[in-house]
Write a structure and sequence with these properties.
The chain has helices spanning about 40-45, 55-75, 75-100, 130-150, 150-165. The protein starts with about 40 loop residues before the first helix and ends with a helix. It is mainly alpha-helical. It has a domain at about 45-105 and about 125-165. The radius of gyration is 17 Å and the shape is globular.
């Protein structure tokens, strides 16, 4: 698994680890790394994460962005970063469904030795079809994701976090 100290550590026991109690173990990683693992944040944010229609996406992204602001007000960088990751994931998943009705990008199952990794792994990419409803949901999430990602305090705390913890 990752050897870079800044990479998200997938070797930790996330089922039994509360990163609010052990923040020193958190690594930002890239993109959405660890978004569905890090507790207690996953349980706090995931119930709000929906993108089926633009109305649902708007309500969801606003709730998650409010959590981002709440974490920010409480000085909780991990919470801010996790909320940012959920907003990013709202965009990427809605975009995937906008491009592929079933949400599947590639033909055939993922080989057992490649599960949990991203990429085609020799499988053909399925044809794209544009779903304007999901595309609008993606656009809504992308706007909120950018607000979180470009927040000056978030950027400052992220830089400090990476300097302190790797």
């Amino acid at each position: 698994m990752p050897t870079d100290d800044r990479a998200f550590n997938y070797n930790l026991d996330y089922r039994n680890l509360n990163l609010r109690e052990h923040p020193e173990l958190y690594r930002v990683g890239k993109g959405e790394m660890g978004v569905l693992l890090v507790q207690p944040y996953k349980d706090e944010i995931l119930p709000n994460w929906r993108f089926k229609t633009p109305e649902i996406a708007r309500e969801s992204s606003e709730k998650i962005y409010q959590l981002f602001l709440d974490y920010k007000a409480n000085g909780d960088f991990i919470g801010m970063d996790m909320a940012r990751k959920f907003l990013q994931m709202g965009y990427t998943r809605a975009r995937r469904y906008a491009n592929h009705r079933t949400g599947q990008k590639y033909d055939g199952p993922v080989p057992n030795d490649k599960k949990g990794q991203s990429g085609a792994h020799g499988r053909a990419q399925l044809p794209r079809e544009e779903d304007p409803v999901k595309a609008e949901s993606a656009r809504i999430f992308y706007g909120k994701y950018l607000e979180a990602r470009e927040d000056e305090e978030y950027k400052k705390r992220k830089k400090e976090w990476q300097k302190t913890y790797g």
